[in-house]
Automatic annotation (TrEMBL):
GO (cellular component) term, any one: mitochondrial membrane
Organism: Cavia porcellus (Guinea pig)
Enzyme class (EC, first level): hydrolase
Gene Ontology biological-process annotations: long-term synaptic depression; lysobisphosphatidic acid metabolic process; monoacylglycerol catabolic process; negative regulation of cell migration; negative regulation of cold-induced thermogenesis; phospholipid catabolic process; positive regulation of lipid biosynthetic process; regulation of endocannabinoid signaling pathway
Protein name: Monoacylglycerol lipase ABHD6
Pfam families reported for this sequence: Abhydrolase_1
Xref: PANTHER family: MONOACYLGLYCEROL LIPASE, MONOACYLGLYCEROL LIPASE ABHD6
EC number: 3.1.1.23
Membrane association type: Single-pass type II membrane protein
Amino acid sequence: MDLDVVNMFVIAGGTLAIPILAFVASFLLWPSALIRIYYWYWRRTLGMQVRYVYHEDYQFCYSFRGRPGHKPSILMLHGFSAHKDMWLSVVKFLPKNLHLVCVDMPGHEGTTRSSLDDLSIDGQVKRIHQFVECLKLNKKPFHLVGTSMGGHVAGVYAAYYPSDICSLSLVCPAGLQYSTDNQFVQRLKELQEPEDVQKIPLIPSTPEEMSEMLQLCSYVRFKVPQQILQGLVDVRIPHNNFYRKLFLEIVSEKSRYCLHQNMDKIKVPTLIIWGKQDQVLDVSGADILAKSINNCQVELLENCGHSVVMERPRKTAKLITDFLAFVHNTDNNKKLD
């Protein structure tokens, strides 16, 4: 073989080896950095842009795609200890002609974290309203979506600010009062001592605890490599003290049943999505909401746990899109009549 050709292959091999070795090193040594790069790449691929907006000295971080148009904008609120990027798996399957906004909830990711902030459900609802006002998102009624803690906030928001929204989607929301406690709630009630706050199952500090949390939240058993589990923990550990403070606030007497206490004030068309195998918040919550909210559609998903957004993103996107189309068309027909 010609020496120049041999040199070409050596150079080419070396050029390819560098990024491959860099990827392997990142995977083994800095998995948390790889996870951040992954979200950045996914946002870029889906056309989601990150922006910041301020209410006085309070910063909100959000991502968006599209512009307000004749169809309602969609505001999406994530769950406890998550961030705006958790919605990317659903965004992938939503029509590109919709105006989407995903915000980091108070104290999460790029949104201000302050020791003076009111982290109760009422406090978070007020913060989200400030965000909406900053973006002038309520110039025209929008569709509000929330999951878990974000669903709790979304439901109460709909009760407090009915003129802001045209419709609502609640994905396995927290904030309801059940006649009997499920295993997860019973386990939480057993954590009575001050040091037990370190044992909250939704706040993992080791790869093993992260694996247990994923199993608790998902019906689908994801096989996650140890390095990725470590990366997920590394990303969360600096925030765990905040998560503990937030958790104690949202399960306090003031906040725990805030949605239950306000659900009869929700007057807009509402879509309820719940995984039948949810081990965190019992699926019977869907029936509780359906009995109190007029014009309510319930969708129960088979073989799905609490992490509906991650387990069934395509189905979630389709349900929201179909629901929006139905509500929007119905409103237009009423105007024509």
